[in-house]
Amino acid sequence: MSVASRINPRSEAFARNAEHFANLLATLHERMAWAMRGGGDKLMQRHIERGKLPVRQRIDLLLDVGSPFLEIAPLAAWGLYDNEVPAAGIVAGIGLVEGVHCMIIANDATVKGGSFFRETVRKHVRAQDIALQNRLPCLYLVDCGGAYLPEQDQVFPDWGHFGTTFYNQCRMSAEGLPQLSAVFGGCTAGGAYIPALSDEAIIVQGTGRIHLGGPPIVKAAINEVVDGETLGGAAMHTRVSGVTDYLATDEKQALAKLRQIVRHLNMPWTPAVPARASLPPRFDPGEIGGIVGGNLKQPYDVREVLIRLVDDSELQEFKPEYGTTLVCAMAHLHGQPVGILANNGVLFSDSSVKGAHFIELCNQRNIPLLFLQNITGFMVGTEAERGGIAKHSAKLVYAMSTARVPRLTVLIGGSYGAGNYGMCGRGFAPNFLFAWPNSRIATMSPEVATTVLTELRKSSLKGVGAEAERVELARQTTEQFTRQSDPYYATARLWDDGIIEPSQTRDVLGLCLQLLAQGIPRVTGPSPVFRM
Ligand code: COA
């Protein structure tokens, strides 16, 4: 049975919200254009004059015609390094090659020679993690100057840095997930190991180079004078050293070769058959902005969002009259079953245990979970504490953390404090996590943080000038929390897999559910359902 909508798209409030949300989307589009631009016109021109294709064009040529491309964290590094490292210099995402879902990881040589900044490494590692979780082959389109040397302490020595990308390559390959490279440009040092550690590697004649040290390093180290082509060119590596397996005369040929290799991978892969036919929602997803608006303090019924996301707007709501600040509902999305937990106010003890109970039901039935976060946190105060909120909220955290079904999270509003934890924030390793452009993420809101910090410092702020100091502390705290809870601050640092629009959300989640259905084996065995 489909749910009715109580929204009036002709109301003044709706128009106000829609306008506010449209502004948020305009900002998103502007910043996405920055990510797509790469290193700018001048460097792009130089790149093309060298006979090289822009990174996104390479990806287009690699993918099957009409394949979707689920791009991961396109706004990585936004607002960092004076905005000179668009998309963190690397494009990563999932698309179909010869009918096989693949993770594509492609350096953008127009951004500082494709070298690795902190966010580049984080994005590369995150893409590999997704590939491993979903059992996807990895296709590396390599054009990479290795570590960005001025930032070497941020990318080289630690776990999760450059070394981990190579560790992941080896481990995934050993687990039967093919690691394939096509080399399009100069790959030095770390860049050289991407093809060298791949199962098979292609190199483009004329532009592709692989060397542990380039000509200047060779001159400095052993006083040998050699040109780049002799040292690490395509012919040498394919015919003499054997570092690469195939020589391509141009980029298009290299991409065609990569497709051919994928065609013969014999991946143990079966496309997930959707549980049922995909039906569009009965209500327009384009109306979500008019419902949600941009003011997180303005309440709305989250069911109005749900019925604009799920198939046929059909929700089987669990315990609709209990713990009403958490809406729990079974639904289908692009034909795949999903169990949704969506905030509809602050989490109380009753809503927390309801959520835990619902997660157990999804576990028992092998239904993936979708958390839609719009949460200020769990209820505080004497009544809540005496009612055992700490214990009951812990049940939700425990059930969510140990769920044996895949989990997806979308920040559709506020993501504050322990609410972020209970609703499967990044720290709880959801399979995918996306954010809407109106979302906010922090331990607490700027207003609450300002009150808490000034209260905490009250005893140390005494005497002459104390009031001025208090005002300055309040100003600084509000500024800091406002800046740091911004969704672009978050996505720049890879705290999510990207900012998506409400109207794209259904398709993005549908693709994720399809990947999860085919990649993750069904868990069997006991799965108790304790009534909470
Ligand atoms: N660290 C810091 N900066 C780097 C870099 C690196 N590893 N690789 C490239 N860059 C910078 C260049 O300094 C240049 O910056 P600028 O535009 O501000 O002057 C920009 O990236 C483009 O480099 P450029 O050499 O002009 O591009 P190219 O396309 O002709 O060559 C490379 C690309 C990657 C082959 C070449 O830059 C190179 O060999 N880089 C150094 C590789 C290296 O020694 N890496 C060791 C890392 S462990």
Report on this structure.
There is one protein chain. Helix 14 packs parallel to helix 16 (389-402) and helix 18 runs antiparallel to helix 19 (466-484). 42% of the residues lie in helices and 16% in strands. Strand 10 (316-318) and strand 11 (326-333) form a beta hairpin. It has a 7-stranded mixed sheet, sandwiched between helices. Strands 10, 11, 12, 13, 14, 15 and 16 form a 7-stranded mixed sheet that branches. The protein is α/β, with parallel strands linked by helices and 532 residues long. It starts with 11 loop residues before the first helix and ends in a 13-residue tail after the last helix. The mean pLDDT is 94. Residues 109, 112-113, 115, 145-149, 186, 188-190, 214 line the site of coenzyme A (COA).
Keywords:
532 residues; alpha/beta; seven-stranded mixed sheet; 16 strands; 42% helix
Nutshell version of this structure?
With 532 residues, this protein is α/β, with parallel strands linked by helices. Helices cover 42% and strands 16% of the residues. The longest helix has 26 residues, at 12-37.
